[in-house]
Amino acid sequence: MRDSRPQSLDTLFEDGATVGKSPLQTIQQYAIALLKLNRTVLSLLPAPLHPWCRVANYRKHILVLEAGNASWMTRLRYEIPVLLSTLRSEILPSLSSIDIRINPSLMVKRDNNAQNSAKSPNNDKQNLPNRQLTHESAKALMMLAERSPEKLKRKLERLAALAGEGTSTAKKKR
């Protein structure tokens, strides 16, 4: 069972040479080992899988991989036999199995990065659709404005005044 009582910060930062290994040193070494294992696993996988999977953990002789969604998990499952035999023969002889879990945050992070790299300040105006308000729609809005309360009437009249202009949000914001 794990000792989950509060600990003094002094024990976390103790010098590893005098006391053995401090907890932070142990965590840091484990994180470094997982990063190296992640690089190795990615080098063994096909290139299309690289952005959508990563090593999450290695415990009790089980390697835990994360995939962005179910389709990437399925593609990753096809690679398990080769991955398992290669890892056993080269770096993890005690590896018993590989578990794959879905982590949707992998997809969100990658999607946001793709959207941010595709957008640039100059492309924002080009990506917006150029919408037109027809004169017939403007007439209908004006008729509706006549029978509306004052606050709504002003907004409908302003909207109707845009007839024939491009009504893209990049051009006018009120």
CATH class value of the domain at 22-109: Alpha Beta
Structural class: mainly alpha
Strand order, biggest sheet? 1-2-3
**Uncertain residue segments:** 167-174
Q: N-to-C SSE series?
A: HHHEEHEHHHH
- The residue fraction in helices comes out at 40-55%
Protein name: DUF721 domain-containing protein
Pfam families: DciA
InterPro entries: DciA-like
Notes on the structure:
This protein has helices at 9-12, 16-19, 23-44, 70-90, 104-118, 124-127, 135-146, 150-160; strands spanning 53-59, 62-67, 97-102. The chain has 174 residues and is mainly α. Among the domains are: 22-109, DnaA, N-terminal domain (GMP Synthetase, Chain A, domain 3, 2-Layer Sandwich), CATH 3.30.300; 133-164. It has a three-stranded mixed sheet. Helix 7 packs antiparallel against helix 8 (150-160).
Topology:
Layout: H1 9-12, H2 16-19, H3 23-44, E1 53-59, E2 62-67, H4 70-90, E3 97-102, H5 104-118, H6 124-127, H7 135-146, H8 150-160
Parallel strand pairs: 2-3
Antiparallel strand pairs: 1-2
Helix pairs in contact: 7-8
Features:
elongated; DciA-like; GMP Synthetase, Chain A, domain 3; mainly alpha; three-stranded mixed sheet; about 170 residues; single chain; about 55% helix; about 10% strand; 8 helices; DUF721 domain-containing protein
Question: Quick gist of this model?
Answer:
This protein is mostly helical and 174 residues long. It contains eight helices and three strands, in the order αααββαβαααα. Among the domains are: 22-109, GMP Synthetase, Chain A, domain 3, CATH 3.30.300.180; 133-164.
